[in-house]
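note to self: dont lose this again. the chain is below, predicted strucutre after it. 266 aa total, dont forget to put it in the shared folder this time
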Amino acid sequence: MKNETKKPMNLIKKLLAVLLIVVGIVCFLYTFAMYFTGFGGFLSFVWLIPAFLGLLLAGMLMGKIILRKWQKRLMIYVLIPIVLIFLVVEMIILSAFFEKPKEEPEYIIVLGTTVYEHGPCYLLRQRLKEAVKWADIYEDAKIVVTGGQGEAEPFTEGSEMKRYLIEELGVSEDRIIVEEVSVNTYENMTFTGAILEKEDEGFSYENTPVLVVTNNFHMYRAMQIAKKAGYENVSGAPSGTYIFLFPHYMVREFCAILKNMALGRM
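---
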């Protein structure tokens, strides 16, 4: 009877170990895919952490790696809480994927990201198309494009977004407001608010309904920053992203949320 109960457990351990090895290898390959394609930058190497942990746990299950007591305590008291915090934050990020307009917006604010010589990047094109979708529904709403010029960008994000809206998506120029100085999400929202206060006497942070458009993984942070910047009647409209890049952006967003919380921006 003793052997009969032991075999299934051994089989389960082996299957789990194989799964962890596969996860480790996939994360290892994903690290270099992100880095050498240029999408991940230095943060690409964060994927070496789950790669290492997957192989470590697999080795432990197979009896190839035996940890000392202090190493086990380190994993229990440090690693497990970090993993739990990460999972909770990721669930919160995912909850914002279902944001929708609460009421008819007066302004549709499109947050900027990378632009190239040939035009907006894929993520930004998705944001602009999402904005136009809602602009077609709310015909009186104006579109605010916001974003300055990064070091490697040939134009300001705001000006290129305006061009794309007019030339590629057929939006009337008099319906577009441009902010082209900001360099992060917090500045996107604060500088946009300053422009709206100047151009619209009826604008108020408390009552004017605004709709924020950005990619799904960025939606939660954008909404929290908007509220921190003073917008009280704000809702969101998330757009999509590359499936291949989705895991990386979710991890990067976790880091960005911690950074913005530390800076008091959300």
